[in-house]
Amino acid sequence: MDEMDKNDKEKTDSESKKPLRPTQLELDVLIKKHESFVKGRMGGVRAHLAHFDLTRLSFAGKNMSDADFTGALLTETDFSNAKLDRAVFFCADMRHANLKGASLIRADLRGASLRGANMVGANMAGTDLREGSLSNADSTGELKVAHENLTVVDKGGANLSGANLSDVKMSGTVAIGSNFSDAVLKSAKIKNASLKDANFSGANLTNADITDCDLENVDLRNAVLSGAAINLSEVAKDKLEGVMLGAPMGLSAKSLPIPIDQLIQLHKIWIESSGKAGQPMDVSGYDLRGNVDFSGACLTMMRARGSIFYELNFTRAQLQNVDLRGADLRHTQFVSADMRGGNFSEAKFVNADLRGAQLQPLSLSSGSKLITNLSGAILRHANFAKANLNYVNFRKADLRDADLRGADLRHADLSEADLTGAELDPDQKDLI
Q1: CA angle 336–392–333, rounded 5-degree value
Q2: What phi and psi values does residue 73 have, to the nearest 5 degrees?
Q3: d(Cα 136, Cα 144) in Å, to the nearest integer?
């Protein structure tokens, strides 16, 4: 074989090894067939996209559950709000991919490169993020490890702020510089992982296994570590400020003069009798975690300044004109609760569920109105979908990555509020 024929053959072999690169229109056809497969419809075909080049293409909002993306090139691919449950991303190149709000329940992400990926608010419960390796042969037949061509730009970690990583498998993972702030990592397995410079501030690591990890410069401020296996002696003291362990922080429910359920009943009597019987409820400064279910309770005019209500349930509760200034309300449920006229300034509502909550002004018998106060409140990742936020005071509030779609924002005071990454309807943007 002469030199020209040899060069032509090498060129043909090299081109044959190039990953398949569909257009967006061609990909949309595959997506439609896969969605039919997921729904069990005739003509549906499971998407097998292993080793495809899908760089910068879009799966936004699509249902790609159980699809195979093994070793695929997914750099800057848009998976925002997509359903990717049980999908296989084994050793896929997902650098700078957009997975914001995506559902990745029990997905296989072993060995995937997620550097710079946006996974804010993603549901990754049970996802496998352990080590994995995948080698590809070059034109000479030599095995080359996938993702070996990382550049300086790719050195940043993934952004998993507010993501649900419950029961995630991360043993042996390299998550250097990754952002897990406000994420839920309950019962996560993170043994032998490289976590240098990772941010776990405000994360829920209840019962997580974080043994034998590199914790150099890890930020655990305001994290929940109840039942977690971790060597805190390796973490700088200034990075442990506000850490919540299993023991009560401050006054516990046991130190209340009477049991909390009796206090609730007496408070209801006090409200219904206009103060002639019963007694008002004041639990200011108490740590009430895990002690009570407030769903449907009459708590009008309750005082609980600086109290801890972490993960408690206030669904459909009556909370008009309450004083919860500075309270810890992270991961709480306020679905359809009546919170009109309440004072929640400086309170923490991170990851709180306020869907359908009523926070419009409270009309008083005198004819005046009491404005709901959320000034300076920390509302990151909070869900306000279809809530009534008419006239609410959000001055200087932290609403980063909050979901405000469908909420009534008319006349709301959002001056100096941080709305970075917040989900808004097109017509709501005119009100900001």
Answers
A1: 30
A2: -90, 110
A3: 5
Q: Indicate left, alpha or beta for 303 from its phi (over 0: left) and psi (-120 to 50: alpha).
A: beta
Q: How far is CA 201 from the centre of its chain?
A: 13
- Give the Cα separation of 209 and 295 in Å (integer): 32
Span 224-278, pLDDT tens digits = 999 999 999 889 999 999 999 988 888 888 899 999 999 999 999 999 999 999 9
Q: What is the pLDDT of residues 21-39, one digit of tens each?
A: 999 999 999 999 999 999 9
Strands (E), 354-401: 362-363, 369-370
Dist. CA 216–CA 339, nearest whole Å? 42
- Please, what's the largest Cα pairwise distance for the chain? 106
Closest C-alpha among 250, 252, 278 to residue 266: 278
Cross-strand bridge partners of residue 338:
318, 358
Tokens of 6: 């040899």
Phi-psi region of 336 (alpha: psi -120 to 50; beta: other; left: phi over 0): left
Confidence of residue 10 (pLDDT cuts 50, 70, 90): very low
**Distances from the Cα of 120 to the Cαs of 103, 195, 200, 379, in angstroms?**
11, 18, 13, 15
Q: Two tokens at 426?
A: 């097109």
Give the tens place of pLDDT for each residue, 213-228. Answer: 999 999 999 999 999 9
| AA letter at 362 | L
Q: List 128's β-bridge partners, or say none.
A: 108, 169
Contact 330, 349 (CB under 8 A): yes
Rounded CA-CA distance 323/399 in Å is: 21
- The torsion defined by the Cα of 32, 35, 41 and 47, in degrees rounded to 10, comes to 80
pLDDT in tens, 152-177: 344 458 899 999 999 999 988 888 89
Distance CA 210, CA 214 (A): 9
Give the pLDDT score at 151.
Answer: 39
Contacts of 77 (CB under 8 A, 6+ apart): 54, 55, 56, 57, 58, 59, 94, 97, 98
Interior CA angle at 71 toward 79 and 197, to 5°?
70
Helix/strand/coil percentages in the chain, nearest 5: 15, 15, 70
C-alpha 239/C-alpha 201 separation (Å) is 8
- Dist CA 231 CA 248 (whole Å): 20
Residue 389 makes CB contacts below 8 A (sequence gap 6+) with: 359, 360, 404, 407, 408, 409, 412
